[in-house]
Amino acid sequence: MVKQPTRSTRRRVARVATTAPVFVMVHGAGSFSNEWHVPLVQAIERELGHAFAYLPVYYADVTRQMMARALETPAEWKFKDALEREFQRAFDTARTSPTVSPRRATRLAGLAPLGQFAAITNQLAGYFFDTRMRTQIHERLIEQLDAVKKQGQPVILASLSLGTVVCFDVLKRWASRYPIALWFTTGSPIAKLRRVGRYDDKLGEITPRNVARWYNIYDTTDWLADPLGPSFPRPGYRLHDIYVNVARDPISSHDYFNNRETIQMFAQAIRDHTIT
Fold first, then answer.
1. What pLDDT is recorded for position 263?
2. Is residue 206 part of a domain?
3. CATH code (residue 14)
4. Separation CA 74–CA 86 (nearest Å)
5. Residue pLDDT, tens place only, 85-128
6. What average pLDDT does the structure give for the chain?
7. Are 192 and 87 in contact (CB under 8 A)?
8. CA–CA dist 246, 261 (Å, integer)
9. Among 6, 15, 34, 155, whose Cα sits 20 to 30 Å from the Cα of 200?
C-alpha cells in the first residue's frame, strides 16, 4: 500500500511559511515499516529545537517483492556477480582501514556479510531488471515531490543507499519539474553501479538550475558507499563529497540516518533554506 502523508504530516506542511523547505526523505534497501521515518524526524527536531515540514517516501513493500523474484536472465546473473565482487573488494579494503584495529580486522576477515551482499544485490537487480517494480518505486517518490510542488515550497531531498539510486534515476529524467534546493545522497552505491556498467557519466536534468546543490555523504569504511564526484566530472556542476565517520568498521558504518553529524547537516540545511 502506498504510504500517504498522515494528517499530522499534512498539518506540518500547511503550518510553515511558504519560504520554508519541505524535507523529503527516502529510505534504502532492506526491511522498513511505513513509519520508518519517525526516528529520523525526531532526531532532526531535537537538533532544530522545533518541528519542520517533511514528507517520507516508503517503498519497502515493493522491495520485499524483489526478494521473492525467481526468474533471472543471464544478464541479471552477470550484473549480480559483478556487483558482489565490487562489494567484497570494498569490504576487504574497509576492514583493513587504519581506523580498524589489527585485532578487529582479523576478526572481520571471517565475517564478510555475504548475506547482506546477496540481499542488496537481489534488490538492486530487481530494481534494474524488473520494469514494473522500478516504476512503482519511482511513482512513490514522484507522488511526494508533486505534493511539495503544489505547496510551492523548495525541496531538501535526503536519500539513503538504494534510495539514492531511486532519486538519481528520477532526477535525471524529471528534475526540471521540481524546486530541488539541496539533494543529500548518503551511503550511495552509484559509483559501484557505474563500474559494473549500469551508468555512464551523464547527469541528464541534474543541473545547477534544477538541483542547486548535491552533497554526497560517505564513510570510507562503508562497503557500499564511495565519493561520487570523480564519477561525474561534469563541467559547470559541482558535486560535493563529504566524509563522515559513522562507525569504525564496515559492519556498522552504513547507518547514516542515525549518525549525529549527518543529522546536524540535515538540520542546518533546513535552517539555511528557511526565510522568516
1. 98
2. yes
3. 3.40.50.1820
4. 19
5. 999 889 888 877 666 555 555 455 555 555 677 888 889 999 99
6. 86
7. yes
8. 8
9. 155
Own/partner long-range contacts of 76-82 (Cβ < 8 Å, ≥24 apart): 76/125, 76/129, 79/125, 79/128, 79/129, 79/196, 79/197, 79/198, 80/121, 80/122, 80/125, 82/196, 82/197
pLDDT, tens digit, 9 for 90 and up, residues 219-252: 999 999 999 999 988 767 889 999 999 988 787 8
Domain annotation covers residue 106 = no
Prediction pTM value: 0.88
d(CA 128, CA 111): 28
Give me the domain span that covers residue 149. Answer: 7-66+116-272
Tell me which residue of 215, 227, 152, 218 sits closest to 183, measured CA to CA.
215
> Per residue, what are the HEC states of the chain?
CCCCCCHHHHHHHHHCCCCCCEEEEECCCCCCCCCCCHHHHHHHHHHHCCCCCEEEECCHHHHHHHHCCCCCCHHHHHHHHHHHHHHHHHHHHHHCCCCCCHHHHHHHCCCCCHHHHHHHHHHHHHHHHCHHHHHHHHHHHHHHHHHHHHHCCCEEEEEECHHHHHHHHHHHHHHHHCCEEEEEEECCCHHHHHHCCCCCCCCCCCCCCCECCEEEEECCCCCCCCCCHHHCCCCCCCEEEEECCCCCCCCCCCCHHHCHHHHHHHHHHHHHCCCC
